[in-house]
Amino acid sequence: MGSDGKRKKRGRKSKTQTTLDPTTSTINDEVFSVNNVEIVNSATPTSANHLENRRGRPKKRLRRSPEKTPPLINGEIGVGTPVEGVARVVPAMDAVVKVFCVHTEPNFSLPWQRKRQYSSSSSGFVIGGRRVLTNAHSVEHYTQVKLKKRGSDTKYLATVLAIGTECDIALLTVNDDEFWEGVSPVEFGELPSLQDAVTVVGYPIGGDTISVTSGVVSRIEILSYVHGSTELLGLQIDAAINSGNSGGPAFNDKGECVGIAFQSLKHEDAENIGYVIPTPVIKHFIQDFEKKGAYTGFPFLGIEWQKMENPDLRVAMGMKPDQKGVRIRRVDPTALESEVLQPSDIILSFDGVDIANDGTVPFRHGERIGFSYLISQKYTGDNAAIKVLRNSKTLEFVIKLSTHRRLIPSHVKGKPPSYYIIAGFVFTTVSVPYLRSELWLCNIDYISGLWYYCVDIVLYGKEYEFEAPVKLLDKLLHSMPKSPDEQIVVVSQVLVADINIGYEELVNTQVLAFNGKPVKNLKSLANMVESCDDEFLKFDLEYDQIVVLRMKTAKEATVDILTTHCIPSAISDDLKP
């Protein structure tokens, strides 16, 4: 729970009569359970008969306490102390459901099979159109999803309609009509302001019933979404968000939903820092699904940029004193923007909104925000006007926005990992889930200086900084694909056999070339090996390592290795011709 931070003063109490502070009334300590507004007046007017003049010294009169009328909750008398002039608004907690999910994750160490299934529970809430919102990480790699309403003993099978990996939102529905009986959908509110009160409702650890925590909005800015490895608008609140709260709504004091709880900050120097997906991001996800029938994602500019806060740098780049903007460092060759944008271009404005030298744009009164917020408000396929300064000349372009593809993808989106096996060498592609699985990283965003927490993952160990493949991590943070189908192919492990003696210690090592030809992706490597007529198979690896195998012996040994390890096929289904 958030703390008001006030300290009690010692000493004598003031003789001045104090009045009841509505903010400290016991009304805040009640459990809110319905969606209604009731303004309760606690003071009664003074009778005119008591205002007559009397001679002599006035008699002392006992102060009458005003009548206390119990507040109406959903049309019924509830328990609580009303406060004069205070609007009582309570969130629709009956719309908050508990989400039960059975997950079956891919096994990146043994890509031909999946891991043992496990169960999890989280929160969700009902919205219009017979739909339910929750977090994407709550139903990731789902096998079965069930929902249970508040106060019910029945679990209803749910269908996953869409999963927004980048924004960490999933959309569900239930076919059983009984589930929707007596449930009113949650209404969305506007983006809250700083210090606005919020109430987070959900089913966190520590009990089975619904839980309510409250706090205030302490920060509004572009945040790192751990699950999606993206940066979008987010709210920071001081209400407790624990495991199981994921997917639960955050209500304002009007009973409207202003966000979805999705992650928290875990650090020894931080306490009660939680994060909420705000309504602009939620509405973008819903409208994207409604317009296109599927989730298409948030568009991004395929560029890396530099701040222009140094005056000498601005002069050297040909900027006038009244011009502001950011410099393009690199452009993704596979992005549509590469056709018009160039390195060292100065982006002056996006869709008519001027960009400051620090990369921010006006947001609300007294607030600024990163200009990526303007891009995230668009949809994939939308056009945007961009103004740049190139060689001291101002140019204007209209670009088509699209999703950004990374060289090392952040997610496999439910698909099993691709693999190819020859002579016991297991070749696969690198992704963020692969790195997390193989390196046991606590959080892949920690490498970027971020400490956000979303799911439980164990650290690699004390030898992490010595044993982690630094080149793979460098490619994750800085490399851009040269072609749309480029992949990082690695030898994930070697299944020991007589043919691969001396190569047993190879692990997580990138494959650069095969028989002198560059390896573009895993499919091209598999095709080259399968169609090879040379006597030897030669693999060029990073750090100037090479692997040489006799072709005929390697293919014969592969059959025995597959049988020994009960592997159904030497090649994954997506790579088969």
UniProtKB/TrEMBL annotation:
<feature type="compositionally biased region" description="Basic residues">
    <location>
        <begin position="1"/>
        <end position="15"/>
    </location>
</feature>
<dbReference type="InterPro" id="IPR001940">
    <property type="entry name" value="Peptidase_S1C"/>
</dbReference>
<feature type="region of interest" description="Disordered">
    <location>
        <begin position="1"/>
        <end position="28"/>
    </location>
</feature>
<protein>
    <recommendedName>
        <fullName>Protease Do-like PDZ domain-containing protein</fullName>
    </recommendedName>
</protein>
<dbReference type="InterPro" id="IPR009003">
    <property type="entry name" value="Peptidase_S1_PA"/>
</dbReference>
<comment type="similarity">
    <text>Belongs to the peptidase S1C family.</text>
</comment>
<keyword id="KW-0720">Serine protease</keyword>
<feature type="compositionally biased region" description="Polar residues">
    <location>
        <begin position="16"/>
        <end position="28"/>
    </location>
</feature>
<keyword id="KW-0645">Protease</keyword>
<keyword id="KW-0378">Hydrolase</keyword>
<dbReference type="InterPro" id="IPR036034">
    <property type="entry name" value="PDZ_sf"/>
</dbReference>
<dbReference type="Pfam" id="PF13365">
    <property type="entry name" value="Trypsin_2"/>
</dbReference>
<dbReference type="InterPro" id="IPR046449">
    <property type="entry name" value="DEGP_PDZ_sf"/>
</dbReference>
<dbReference type="InterPro" id="IPR041517">
    <property type="entry name" value="DEGP_PDZ"/>
</dbReference>
<feature type="domain" description="Protease Do-like PDZ">
    <location>
        <begin position="408"/>
        <end position="574"/>
    </location>
</feature>
<dbReference type="InterPro" id="IPR043504">
    <property type="entry name" value="Peptidase_S1_PA_chymotrypsin"/>
</dbReference>
<dbReference type="Pfam" id="PF17815">
    <property type="entry name" value="PDZ_3"/>
</dbReference>
<feature type="region of interest" description="Disordered">
    <location>
        <begin position="43"/>
        <end position="76"/>
    </location>
</feature>
